[in-house]
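hiii, so i know i said id send this last week but things got crazy w the move. better late than never?? heres the sequnce for the chain we talked about at the cafe, plus the structure i predicted for it. fair warning i was half asleep when i ran it
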Amino acid sequence: MSESANRPRGSSRRVVLQSLETLALSGVTHLPRGRRKPNGRTAEPAPDPIENDAPAVEAAPSGGSHGSTDGDRAAALEIIRLEVAACTRCTELASTRKQTVFGSGNPHPRLVFMGEAPGADEDRQGLPFVGRAGQLLTKIIEACTLKRDDVYILNTLKCRPPENRTPLPHEAANCREYLDRQLDVLAPEYICCLGAVAAQNLLGTTNTIGRLRGSFHEYRGIRVLCTYHPAYLLRNPAAKKDCWQDMQLLMREMGITLPG
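okay and structure toks below
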């Protein structure tokens, strides 16, 4: 029997209906159609994590989102968010989370900030970087003459690991499909990895943050800069100057002039 068959029918329907209402209120009037096979028939979608009798939502085509409207991207992101909300790939995380934390911000960003995993505050609110580390990240963004609404913020994992432990390799692997698709829809010019977990998972490296920071890397043609996680900066205030050097490098690359 499939996982969706074991899932309570009412909760899945509520998730879908609430999400479709949210899309309607935001002005989205249609969702992307599935790609067609050469014979003209619609390609069969991947297994749907939502109940078969729930409103049908088809997966968005892959291949990037350059040229798409904010409404198109919001709709495509909502499809992935629904899949994440129903995900039970990591048994421990699915059984201990309050809710998944997909990401938030501008659906058409030049810059994406990528962290490690949700903490207790994020797990409770369903939004990334809303605790003390999130407050510091907001200050960093504002020091770069930007606002949180200008960027998009997400994490390597969409569920909080118990006791905020470091994500396990198989957990990051289980979430990687969602992360890649999410970034493919967002199609940013730049990604700023916050901390070693984010940097190592995105770039497929074992190098430390100390070795990765200070220069640009690449992910699918996107420029990637790595710096310290705000939670690390709270524990080690002396490292803030290094983080600020990284952000100055990133802003210069983006063509943004900082005051002073």
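btw The chain has a mean pLDDT of 83. thought thatd interest u
miss u guys!!
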